[in-house]
Amino acid sequence: MASKVYFAEAGGRPRQGPLDRLHMLFEAAGFPARITKRDLVAVKVHVGERGSTSFVPPYYVSAIVEDVTRCGGRPFLTDSGCLYFSARYNARDHMVVAAEHGFTIETAGAPFLVADGLRGSDVRTVEVNFKNLTSVDVVSAIHDANSLVVVTHVTGHALTGFAGTLKNLGMGAAGRRMKLAVHDQVRPGVNHDLCTVCKNCLDNCPAEAVDIVDGQIVMDPDVCIGCGECISICPEKAVGVLWKGDPLAAQEKLAEISAAVLANKRDRCCFFTFLINITPTCDCWNYSAAPLVGDIGYLASSDPVAIDQAAADLVNGAGGPGDGPGATDRFRASFHSIDWSRQLSYAEEIGLGTRSYELERIGD
Ligand code: SF4
Ligand code: SF4
């Protein structure tokens, strides 16, 4: 059976601006029934790395927080720390970046707290029985919340090709052990015939895994965390993916982790997806590249798989600058032909949702 995904176009008109449309989506998707009075409601956001400008802005989040509060919920904004050294590596630094980007009670209407504690060790282990994982560390603030609202910004991604709700949950609601497990399949390799030793990869590697040896760029596989930044940042396209195992297993793990995150609150989850500023890389990087397509709109659904499928279809169905006939899969085109659809087909296989959806347009 198809799941309902509700869609409102980006932008607005007098008396029906973007925030009005978010309120309309909240109602249409039946989210008030998923929040009970006095619920602690985790609103999973991504505050953006320092230097990024394409994350979902806090004033959009404020509309969602307002609706949660109106339903009697007690919302808090949350996200987990990074696997690598960045401005969001520990909770103190993460909260500083969140405040710099406006994720404060004054702007977004709810306080921001880091979901996995000061040093990223505050997790709850959920036993599962999947093909790749037998236990999943879920960050405590999301695990322990009564309800969950997932605010996702769709982008391309160097590891998974497409980053939507499953990626948001599979990385953002997962403890460090799980983040490592997702990344352990991929390591970069350099084509020295193409490399100009411009050092972009060396300067931007968050794990300091890149060095120059005998005039050539080398990546230390024991230090590399498989983030893929060097792949996306190389101007010569000289860095490729060396898969250590099944290249699709990382996507399967995202789905398995997402299932574990949602396990104790499946009927108490609301998914919002923003199809704006759709950049080729995610908001974890300290810059935002030009978008792949113009702004499309906002989605809401109670099915995390259906909303991702709808998001991918809308992006791939939208015209982009310089598109010729047959320009179809922007995510696959962005990153070395990664078949991003495995995360969705596998999520469907393990019962997380369905790729079949009915799109219902909200607003005018
Ligand atoms: S970014 Fe690319 S071209 Fe520049 S040093 Fe690294 S691999 Fe070579
Ligand atoms: S994938 Fe590249 S940028 Fe990321 S840690 Fe490894 S060498 Fe560094």
Structure overview:
This protein is an alpha/beta fold and 364 residues long. It folds into two domains: 3-181 and 248-361, 3-Layer(aba) Sandwich (Rossmann fold); 186-243, Alpha-Beta Plaits. Helix content is 30%, strand content 22%. It has 13 helices and 16 strands. The protein has helices at residues 18-28, 58-70, 91-100, 105-108, 140-144, 165-172, 176-183, 200-204, 229-233, 249-262, 304-317, 330-334, 342-349, and strands at residues 3-9, 40-44, 74-79, 112-114, 123-127, 135-139, 147-153, 155-157, 161-163, 186-190, 210-213, 216-219, 239-243, 269-275, 297-301, 357-361. An eight-stranded mixed β-sheet has the order 4-3-2-7-14-15-1-16, with helices on both faces. Strands 5-6 form a two-stranded antiparallel sheet. Helix 1 crosses helix 2 (58-70), helix 6 packs across helix 10 (249-262) and helix 10 crosses helix 13. It is globular and about 65 Å long. The relative contact order is 0.19. It binds iron/sulfur cluster (2 copies). One iron/sulfur cluster is lined by residues 190, 195-201, 217, 234, 236, 238-239. One iron/sulfur cluster (SF4) is lined by residues 188, 205, 207, 209-210, 219, 224-230.
